[in-house]
UniProtKB/TrEMBL annotation:
UniProt cross-references to SMART domains, sorted A to Z: AAA
Record keywords: ATP-binding, DNA-binding, Nucleotide-binding, Transcription, Transcription regulation
Keyword Methyltransferase in record: no
Record's protein name: Sigma-54-dependent Fis family transcriptional regulator
UniProt organism field: Vibrio sinensis
GO molecular function, one term: sequence-specific DNA binding
CDD domains, per database record: AAA (cd00009)
Amino acid sequence: MSQWLVHVTELAMARQPNQLAGRFADTIRDELGLKNSLLLVPSSDGRTLVSHGEPHQLSWSVTDFDCPVAHVLQSAKPIYLGSDELVFWRSNRSFRQLTSCVSFMDTVAILPLPVGGEQVQSVLLMIGESRLMEGLVDQGEFAKYLEVFTHQWALLNKMQKEHQDRQVLSESLSDAQRDSDRRCVMSQLSTTLIGNSSAMQKLREQIINAASSKLSVMIQGETGTGKELVAQAVHDVSSRSKGPFVAINCAAIPENLLESELFGYSKGAFSGADKDKLGLIAQADGGTLFLDEIGDMPLSLQAKLLRVLESRVFRPVGGKKELTSDFRLVSATHVNLLAQVRQRQFRQDLYYRLLQYPISLPRLSDKIEDIEFLSHHFVSIFNQHNETYIRGLAYTAIDRLKQYDFPGNVRELKHLIEFACAQTLDGTEVTVDCFEHRLSPSHLFTPELGHISTHNLAASEATFTSGGVKDLKQTLNEFELHIIRERLQLFEGDRAKTAESLGIPKRTLAYKCQKLEIKTS
Ligand SMILES: Nc1ncnc2c1ncn2[C@@H]1O[C@H](COP(=O)(O)OP(=O)(O)OP(=O)(O)O)[C@@H](O)[C@H]1O
């Protein structure tokens, strides 16, 4: 009998309810020499009794009174069934199968646990020779063993429940923390990416999702829609924000220089390469590489870029050693890249590699409700930069802006507001008169004629002659800047058409845009 003491110690060592139940049922079977011993425990919803200690789990509904265990559970009284009494319990299939081993010398004992308690926690089912069952419950050591088990069972279940509660609590706390972090990033983004339209809200969500992934991000949108701003935002809200943000406009760099700009070069790689130079890919290590106007990347470089993206390994021009760089690629294009893929001007494999997380930016005319926010935002930036106090825009001015379709998108609006603020007396509001003429068609170039409209030419001449030309180079630059801006506006930012209409190669136009700091409009 001292053996029960050993078994009690074993029970005390169990740390999980399942482990405890298995050990308990096995001990009873082995110690008493029974044919079978099962512990039946109510399921978490309390609707079924489920077995422990049986290879094939059995379960009975707690209201299935075709089975004696339901009676024991309800009455909290033990039932002892001899082989002759089992014939009355044959309708329940699994109980019939479980007791099929019972011979005329055996008894099936079904005890509620705790024995003598009113609240049944579990049910013990034993099958064995009748002589082994007789008076078993009254044996002090066995009864004590059952009592210790029931206490331990209650204790471990309570501990497991508390552990689960703590886990749920900590999960909901970290969910709440995540939500609050996300709200915080959203509000941070709404101070740089202005607009409350549903398109802008969706955009901010996409930026956060893209930033928290490791995917390459492709930003598509017309000129002036904010592609560069979005690229910067993806970097700023990502875990790489402390790393570098390295940007390059592929259209603005002559084709032969782009490779060495991106990949760097080794000393002696070509004439003039008098020392090693780190390329932008290497500089972006730990941060973000932004390739603007990716559609202008030559095909030969596209293959090399794909290799870097796949393997993170690259070789500087003329270099012997391969280098590695861990960067996230964000690319942007204002052209339909898929059309370029179809025309075999852009590699399909690279296209899909870049498009892992696509973000499309809407035209300003597709989010008219943002025009007011943006206009006020640009007025306050103007005030900050110029230490003025322009008091916002008159309602009529905002209405007029909402009627215009802004081919140059947000950038055009920004320039228009800057221009209007410069026409506005400090302390007063921007009115329609300040910018109306810049919205009218006569302000634009006439494509058929290919020259500046007379109205505009007059305005330009007035500008250049009124103060007298003091610096020819600067004046010519200003004139060039004026012509390119106007032409880009006419062709709604399409650089290919603009370049063609001005009779210059697209790459020259891109170079001039870069030099004159024209972002188009
Ligand atoms: N939602 C916005 N909130 C505030 N400013 C914006 C927003 N969208 C664009 N801008 C501003 O508009 C101007 C143009 O933006 P950006 O340079 O990012 O456009 P882009 O699409 O990259 O243009 P491009 O294709 O011509 O290079 C910038 O001054 C930018 O700050």
